[in-house]
Each structure stands twice: as structure tokens, then as C-alpha cells.
Amino acid sequence: MAAMxxxxxxxxxxxxYVREQRLLDNISALSEGNEEKRxxxxxxxxxxxxxxxxxxxSICKELDYTLTRLIRGLASNKRWARLGFSLALxxxxxxxxxxxxxxxxxxxxxxxxxxxxxxxGEQSNMRLGQVMVYLxxxxxxxxxKASDAELVQVTKSLLSVRxxxxxxxxxxxxxxxxxxxxxxxxxxxxxxxxxxxxxxxxGWENCSPDTLLMLLTAxxxxxxxxxxKFLKTHWGYKRLVNANTCKHIxxxxxxxxxxxxxxxxxxxxxxxxxxxxxxxxxxxxxxxxNDALLQQRTPKKYLCLHLVPHALELANSESEVSxxxxxxxxxxxMGFLSSREHVLHDAADHLVQQLTAxxxxxxxxxxxxxxVVTALLSMPSGAVMDQSKSRLFSNLISSLDHEAxxxxxxxxxxxxxxxxxxxxxxxxLANLPRQWVIQQLxxxxxxxxMATDSAWQLKILQFLFLNSFFKVVEPTEAVPHCDKPSxxxxxxxxxxxxxxxxxxxxxxxxxxxxxxxxxxxxxxxxDVLHGLVDYAQTLLDNPQVAxxxxxxxxxxxxxxxxxVQVLSKIKSKADKEKRMHEGRAFQLLYLHLGLQxxxxxxxxxxxxxxxxxxxxxxxxKRRMSIKxxxxxxxxxVEVITELLLSMLSEQSHLVRVVVNTxxxxxxxxxxxxxxxxxxxxxxxxxxxDGPLDFEEEEDDDxxxxxxxxxxxxxxxxxxxxxxxxxxxxxxxxxxxxxxRSKVKAALGKGAVCxxxEEEEDDDxxxxxxxKFDDALAAVFKNKSRAKKEEKEREVQLKHFKMRCLDLxxxxxxxxxxxxxxxxxxRPLLELAESxxxxxxxxDLGNKTVGVLHQLCHPRKLPPDTNIDKSExxxxxxxxxYFSAKASSFPLVSEVASACLLLVRVMLGLESNAxxxxxxxxxxxxxxxxxxxxxxxxxxxxxxxxxILKDAIQDYCEKRDTNLDHRLFLCILxxxxxxxxxxxxxxxxxxxxxxxxxxxxxxxxxxxAVMISRQSxxxxxxxxxxxxxxxxxxxxxxxxxxxxxENVKPRIMRHILFVMYRTLTSSSEDTVKDLVSxxxxxxxxxxxxxxxxxxxxxxxxxxxxxxxxxRVSMPVDVGNEKTKKKDKQQKENIEEFVTxxxxxxxxxxxxxxVNVNGSSLSKKKRKRQNSASGPGVQPEQNGTLxxxxxxxxxTPTTEKSPNTNADTSxxxxxxxxxxxxxxxxxxxxxxxxxxxxxxxVANEADSSLHELTKKRRSLxxxxxxxxxxxxxxxxxxxxxxxxx
Length: 1283
Description:
Blueprint: H1 2-29, H2 35-53, H3 61-73, H4 81-95, H5 101-111, H6 120-139, H7 148-164, H8 169-182, H9 185-196, H10 209-221, H11 228-235, H12 246-256, H13 265-275, H14 281-293, H15 298-314, H16 318-324, H17 327-338, H18 345-359, H19 366-376, H20 392-398, H21 402-417, H22 434-443, H23 454-469, E1 470-472, H24 492-511, H25 523-541, E2 546-548, H26 554-576, H27 581-596, H28 601-622, H29 636-648, H30 653-666, H31 672-679, H32 698-720, H33 724-734, H34 737-747, H35 749-755, H36 766-813, H37 818-835, H38 842-856, H39 872-882, H40 889-907, H41 936-957, H42 965-974, H43 982-990, H44 997-1010, H45 1013-1018, H46 1021-1040, H47 1049-1065, H48 1068-1074, H49 1077-1089, H50 1094-1108, H51 1120-1149, H52 1162-1172, E3 1176-1177, E4 1180-1183, E5 1189-1191, E6 1194-1195, H53 1201-1213, H54 1216-1235, H55 1238-1243, H56 1245-1282
Antiparallel strand pairs: 1-2, 3-6, 4-5
Helix pairs in contact: 1-2, 2-4, 3-4, 3-5, 4-6, 5-6, 6-8, 7-8, 7-9, 8-10, 10-13, 12-14, 13-15, 15-18, 16-19, 17-18, 19-21, 21-22, 22-24, 23-24, 23-25, 24-30, 25-27, 26-27, 27-28, 27-30, 28-29, 29-30, 29-31, 30-36, 31-37, 34-35, 34-36, 36-38, 37-38, 37-40, 38-40, 39-40, 39-41, 40-42, ...
């Protein structure tokens, strides 16, 4: 029982210790810099104290201890201590009613007492701690429970500290304001006001920010005590904040900046009082902000920036917003933003972020938001003149909601038209540059909030269209935007800006999509264009209202009317048939070309004629009127494609957008002939060196292309060079007959003289010479201009090809028929191969590779009956050998992808993973086995296998081949199971010693990438087991070919890797049949040979680690560095210890044996030794012929006691190294005593002598090292002491 009670007491004591330690840890965590940790620690302290207090009426010792620690911590000078301890103290006072104000004041008086023997800094910390105790009393509302005497004591203490310590003025003022707000009217009047009345009666002349803050708080909380009579008597007015006191308030604000960058609370409180009186706001902002703070230095301007967001939160109308964001303030903000080195740049940037958040708020009305934006646009220093590139206005308008953006667009429209009568609230905006306003109006059309409002977008486009192409003749309200002409009239520059903005808005709307995850629906865009065409028709039908700048001819008007009629038909059909892609394509083309009639009439008329024929043919075909068709005419999609290509050559972004959009709609109707029209763009002229053909010789093509590329580079370098010598050489090389004739024509008679080599310069006057100079300069200038034009044409042709590539990318992304994809392979590969060789067209080549990547990796391949699968193997062979011309690995990878695409199309595979039941395919074709009857797909696949084997054979046997091994790696890795019969060929080349070593190595890599768990699972178990056995056997024999004189680490590593992949991909039953001890020995042998080659050694260890748990023999798979270190250490040990071990071994071997040959036990030997007498030791020389053991007793050398004494004494006094030395000496004596027995002693004399010499040399070396170490330590001590 006693034991149980003691265990319970110890458990309670331990639990108590844990809880107290938890409390201490949480108190210590209050001074950490992490706010979350401080909050968690405070919560934990309160929880722990609540469990301790447990509704007790008296303060428990834990609570008392915590209260003392928290109050003491308020005087700590650590950075985060006062924050953490004040937070915890407030929470403790709130949650424990048992703690009274008296307890807190007594504890503070005891802990924070100011003593005479402490420093001034500690005294300041104590006073600050006292003030923070009073602040905690007010924040915890415990001051409400204070007695009258305690309330007076707190008030007088704060006033005394406030008078004595200037740095604590603000803190004491805030504590007093807290006392004022927490107590009742009667207690304030009776106990607090008598103490504060003298300080609050100083008037405006002696008013400080602290005084005004306390007076405002007292007036607001206790208006009966601090009544209007008191204010009128001492402050001159019945209200502290009014229009007459703004000048005095300005002086108070200026004084409050002495604590910069701390913002005095009185500023925000005065601001709140000001906005309660709307008539005071303009006066206050003018006299305090504009005339006082903005005219001062940095601290005062910083206060202005801080007041702006608070003032906007208090503003209730647009007029107050315009007052707050005055032109002077906006000019200061823009000035701060324009210079990153300005002190207030960060403050201004933060203010801009606050303005953006304010404008995007849902609690603010649209009129106020627009007022903020227009105030920032005020001239002359608004957002228009912002040079900081902060995108202030664009960020603001992008944050506006739909209603505010609509209001703002109306304001901007009136500004462009010059209609300022209806916008009297924003007169400064009348001076904004109209060109800038037009640009911002165009930018608003792609706002996210206005993306779905087609009516608003049409309104803006109608305004831009009207002012771009028409002039209002007679104002009328029947036509939108024609109710009033622009005042002043629009200039040509503004009309050009509107025209440019009109087409930019159209192109943006065509591609603008709020939902990035889905394709854009062009229904709303087509509706907007329809409304725009209808508006244009209205303007053309009313020439008395608006007249076009360019007159429409009869033919143009006739085509326009026809366009309108066709559009109405297409629209009616589109409403009936929702999925009519070709109809929408024609609709979009007609809309665009109809608008193009206002800019390019001649070019558009020809295109419209062809478009009409395409439209009739397309819709006639839809009605199945085949009898009336002319089969000799091209298909309508072919004509449309040709039209799109002609439009794509124009230098217009809108045209390119329309072409891409229309082409995307026509992709389901694309044919091979139409696609060939696009591919013909990439075909060079017959005079130029075209891209390489599949059928040409590889070596000749490569050399020609390299020479061509190098020639282009040299030509580019010569053109870009500025030296005179290079220009002379270039001109000498490029002089042709045409240039010669032009020079002769320019020289006239002078050319004849030059040809006849007659020097008659004296007959020419200076004027004639100057004429010749001007003529020659004109000739060569025209020559250089022609070169520049030719270069520009090349650049334009490259850009046109890149646009055509965009069309092909659109086609590929629309999942077309496989026949179209296969039709693209060859031309794109040729383009990529030729473009990547030249630096000037490298971007074109990279883009082509991107299109190829998208083309060769389709998600699904729908069935296509237009493909002749019997032609695919030949195409596969062409692509395979085309890789020899590829100049980069990305292109090689795309060739491999193209080959695999052919295989997918040939076998009808939907995905790129290959057929899952591969065991139904041709598994393994033996040489002597006849070809079985298979279907056409399997026959084609067999041809693919043969082509691939032949290519690998060419790669291994022909030295002049340019085939890239990376091509085979890509193909075999992606479709290993499908191409499994190739493994036989690979294995044959691995074991063929006549093949080049590099090729054998790469063939091993090909074999390794084909072996995986997926490919093994696709095979039948019996077939894989047979192949694995054959493979492991052949690889084992290949490893046996290498020895120490013939080490090839790289191929050995690949062979080991193939073995490892084979074993890890097989089942455990198969692994048991593959693993043998001979294999382990062979791998260990390889490891010894390649020990210095890290990669091969690591591969050996990896394979041995796998084999170690599957064979019974020991396998060494340790770390080589550790083993080498252990081996060296073992050699060092054997160098000094082996004689003793050898002697011990000899003694063990000399044990007495019984008659039957077994050795005697330890006890029997001891008994036998004692019977033989002291100083003798038996030794066995052998077993006699009669079976008895011959024992020879020889005297032993006894150890002297002095030696043992010296040894023990050295162990006590010397260091560790000296102990090792003495021990080594003793060991040598022991060895000598053991070696002095009989014949063993005679044989060990020489070895003992050598051992003694080595021991002495080792001891000397160790002693020298100890001496050096001690000397270095003494030197370090001297240096440290001197420092």
C-alpha cells in the first residue's frame, strides 16, 4: 500500500510539473516575433489558468504568478515583449473577474517600482510599463469596476507621466481617452474632469494634438460636462470643428507630424467630425490639406496621402470626391509615382492600390466611382500625364463594374464630341486630349465587366464607325450619334485615330474570351457586326443626314446591297439550323468584306465576286443539286482557301484574325486539294535551292544545305559589317552587267574615258565632277535600296509562312481526318529541316516543329476510308531515312513521332499506347519459320518490322550512314510491345564483335528501352521466359569476352542495365531460372575491372544488390569508398598487429590433444599446466605415429611487476595518445614473452626485431604530431589572449 501511495504522489507531482512547465513555455512564447504564436500562447495561458482557478473566490497561485510575470513583462525592452504581454494581460483581466483593479495596481507598484540604483533606461522602461498597465485596464474594461479613489489615482498618474516624459505623451493621451470613454457621465464629472479641466482650457493658441484629442473625446462622450458654454468660453466657438477653426486645426495637424511616420489619432477623429458637416469639407480640405500640408515638406505630404483613403470612405457625394482628389493633390501623387527614388513613392503606390480597391468595392455607387476616375483625369497633372508607367487609369477602369463603366463611357463620348454642357460636374475634363480619350474609350470595349453587353459594344463601334467614314450633314435624333455634330470638328488626325481604334476594337472582340477553358463562341461577335452593317445601311440610305468621305460608285453600291441581301438570307438560315459552320463562315466573311468596302473598294470587289460564286456553289451542293454542278470547277472550299490566303498576305491584324476564325469554321470541310494550296506556300521557286527531298542522296544533300547555310551566314555578316574594306569586297563580288550599264549611263562621256583608260580629268570641270558624283551616288543608293527591299520581302515571306503555319495548327487542333494529317507530314518535315539550318529562319523552323508535335500526337484517330494502308510501309521507310537529314534532336523526335503516327493509322489504333492484346500479333518470327497467314494489318506490321531491322542493320554495318540512334530509341521506347520482333536483330548485333563498339553500345540501349513491365505483360509468359533465358545467356557470354586488358566500361554498363531491366521486369519464378552463381561471379568480376569508372560501378552494385537476396553465395554490394578505407585500415593494422596474432594462432594450434586427435578443453589445459609446474607451457609439435601427443615444456619469460606498475601509472597520468604508446610497449613485451616459447621464439626473432623498429618509428611519428598539436594549441591561446 505504501508503495502504491508513493507512486501516486510521484505521478501527481510529475503531472503538476508538466502543467507548470507548460505555463512557463507559453509565457516565454509571448515575446516571439510570430503573431500567431503569441495568440496561441495567450489562448493556452487562459485555458490553463481557468482549469487552475476552477471558480475559486480567491486568486490561485498560478494566476497570481502569471499576473506578476505579465505586468513585469510590460517593462521589457525586447522587441515583441510588450505586444505579447499586453495582449495576454488584457485577456487575463477579461476572463478572471476575481482579479480587481486594486490587485493590478498593487502588483504594478511592487513589480514596476522605480528604484534609485537602476539606470535611466530601466527607469524609462518602468514608466512605460506603468502606462501600459493603465492601457490594459482600459482595454479590458476593468477600469469601469475601479473605485473612485483608484480612478483618481489612475488619472493623476497618467497626467503626471504625461507632463514629465515627452516621449510618452501620445501613449498617456490614448490611455486617458480610454478612461474617458469607459466611465459614466457622473463619475467623469465628479472624479476625472477636475483633473483634466486645466489641461483642456488652454485654447487654440496653446493647443497641441494630444489636448485636442482629449477634448474631442470628452466632448463626444460627455457633452453635458464639456458643454458649449465651456467651449465658447475657452475655445471661442460652440463647436470645435467648423469652418472658422480650420486654420487652427491646420496648425495642430502640422504639429502632429513631429512623430513622423506615426499618424496621430487626432487627425482621423477631426476628419470624422469634418465630414459630419458637408459645408465644412471644402473649407477644411482647402485650408488644411491644399494650403497647409501640401505646401510643406515630406512628413506633411505623407499625412495627406494617409488622409485620402479615409476621406473617401467618409465621402457621400461626387462633389466631395472631387474636393478630396483636388488637382494639386493629384499632381503630387503623379509626381511621387514618376520617380522611384522619391521618399514617398511607396506611399503613393500604396494609395493607388487603395484607390483601385475603393473603385472595385460594391458598397460605392457608380457615380462616386466615376467621380474618382474623372478626378484623377483632371488636367494639367492627371493620369494622362502620368510618366510612371503605373497603368493607373487602365487599372482603375478595369476595376469598374458594368454600371460605372457605362457612365464613364458616356462621359468620354461627350468629351470626344465636345459636349460639355451635360457634364458640368466635371469641367476640368474638357481640356483632356481628345486623341487620348478615344484610345481609352477603345480600351474599355474589352473590359471583363462589359464583355457580355453587346448593345454597349455596338454603341461604341457605331460612334467610331460614324466619325471614321462619315460626316454629319444635318443633325437628327432618328439616327444614333447624329443628334449633334462634334464641336470643334474632328481633325484628320483624330479621324485616323478613330479609324485605327475601330479596327483594333473589332480584332480584340473577335479574340476576346472571358472563359479561357472553352473555345470562343462568335455568336455575339457576329451579332455586333450585323448591327454595325445595319447602321451603315441606315447611314447610306440617309445621305441628307450623313455623307461618306469616300463616294460609293454604282458597282460598289450594288455589291454592298448584294452583301446585305446575302447576310439576311444566311441569318435566317442560321436561326433554323444551329450547327451550320460553313454558313457562319460565309456570314463572317461577308460582314468583314462589307466593312472593307469603306476602306479598300477595288480589292474588295474582286474578292466579293469570287465569294458570291463560292456561296452559291456551297449552298447548291447542300440542296443536293448535283446534276447542275460543273465537275471541272474547283470545290467551293478550295476557292475559299485561296481567298483566305490572299487575305492573309495583307498587313492587317484584323484580317488575320478573321481569316483564322473563318478557317476554324471551315476545318470540317477541308479537302486534300484545299490543304495542298496552303502547303504550296512553303514550296520554294525552281531557281532556288529548295528543301531537301526524301529521294535525294543523303550525303550530297547535307553538304549542299550546309554550304548554303554557311553562304547565307557569310552574306549576312557582310551586309551587317560597316568597314570599308568589306563593303568594297562585297560590291566587287556583286557587280553585274545591269549595275555596270547604270554606272555607264550615269557617267556618260566619263564612262568612255574610263573604258579607254585615258586620264582626261583635266577636261572635266568641278560642276561636271559633282554631277558625276551625284549620279553615281544615286545609282548605288538605288542598289542598296533594292537590297533592303529584297530583304524586307524575305522577312514578309517568312511572316506569311508563319501565318500559314497558324492555319495548319488550327486545322490540326480541330481533329481532322487521318488522311489530312498524313498529307501534312512530308511538307512540314521538309520545311522544318530547311528552316532550322538558317539563322534567319530558325524561328520559322521552331514553329514548324511545334506544329509537327501537335500533329503527331492526336488524342484520337477516327476511321478514314481514304487511306491506302498498303502505301504506308513505304512512307514509313521514307520518314525513317529522312531522319539522316535532321539537324537537331527535336526534329529527330518529331520524325519518330511521325513514324509512330503512321503505325497508328495503319493498325487503326485510337491512342498512342499501342494494342493491348499484343499476343494476338506476330510475336517472334524465326528465321526458318514460314510466314503464317495473317490479315492485311499484320502484313503491313511485318513490313514495318523488316524496314526497321534493315535500318538498324545499316546503322550498325555502314560507316557512312547518317541515321541517328536517337530515332530508334524514340520509336522502340514508345511502341516496344508492337515492335518486339526487332529484339532478335538487336541481340544479334550486341553479340557481334565485328560491329563497331559505339553501335553495339547504342543497340544495347535500344534493347534496354524495349524491356519493361508493360511490354512483358503484353507478351505471353512462355514466350517471355524463353526470350529472357536466351537474352541472359547471350549477354553473359558477351561479358565473358572482356578481361582486364580489354575493358570497355560503357558497353559493359549497358549490358548490365539490360540484365537489370530483364530481371526486374520478370516474375519471381522466371528470375529464379535466370539467376545463377556464375552470373554473380561474372558481375563481380566486371566490378573489379571497372572499379574506377563510377557509372559502371554503380550499375554493378545495383545489379548485385538485386542478386544478393536470390543466391546462396555471399555477394559484396557495399560502398566502394568505405570498403577501400576499411581495406587500407586493415592493411595498416596487419602491418603492426599480425605478429602477435600469428603468435597467438601458433599457441592455439599448439594446444594439447587427446589420443583421438581432439584438442583439450580450456580447463584441462589449465589443470595440465598447473600440474606441470610454474613457468612452463605445453606446446604441441604434432601427433606421434602411435597416437600420443608429444609435449615439450619450455620456460616462459615472466613479466616483472615494475613493468605493470609503470604501465598503470602511465594510464593515470598521460593523455590518450600517450596511453596508446605505453600500451604498445606493453604489447611488445607480451608478444616477446609469447614468442619466446620453443621453436616459435626462434622463428620470430627476426620479425620481432622488425616489429620493434616499426613500433619505435610509429611512436616517434605520433609524438611529433602531438608536439605539433600542442604547439598549435598554445599559439591559438596566445592569439586569443592577445585579442
